[in-house]
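User: Predict the structure for this protein chain, please.
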Amino acid sequence: MIIRWHGHACFEIANDITVVTDPHDGRSIGIKPPQVKADLALVSHDHFDHNSVKTVSKATTKIISSPGKYEKFGIKVRGILAYHDNAGGERRGEITIFNFNINNINFCHLSDLGHIPTSKQIEDIGDVDILFVPIGDVFTIGAQDAWKTIKLLKPKVAIPMHYRVGGLSLSIQPLDPFLTNADKVEKVGNEIDFEPEDIPEQFEVWVFSL
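Assistant: Here is the predicted structure, written as structure tokens:
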């Protein structure tokens, strides 16, 4: 199985089936566009830096873009309603948190989460092996609330996303404030190829690069 980062909140998770989360078109946010075609695209909300399905689509691509329970290509997906801000969506609207299982690994993509998850959301998310968590503040939770969220969800691996990188045209915070509280960090480059047995027993942060 491969996880590859395409910048911002866009990840490619590929086994026999390729899942792409929150695709962007690159040009609109100042970084390279994703170079992947999805079997399944998960779109958490209808903002330009998360919903460029046409960038990653092929004729057979399936799209999930709302809360609910789904099964596509044998992959079970649960979408959980959450908010883009800490005011119940009044400022930036709703998002969908996605929990999906591939090869017996539970992934959770928090998208542009703008608040610490509620107890009901934590219950609905369930067990998490690998957590994609925004850390850039401004439009999402920042480093401090990201760590609070990690402690609540108890993943085995946390992958930071939605932070400032070179060329990005969005004014959000960089990676370093998040890493100050990390005990074990693995810098994996642009992608990591792993099997379920490679998931660490002790919590780690995996940092990707473009």
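The domain at 2-208 is CATH 3.60.15.10 (Metallo-beta-lactamase; Chain A).
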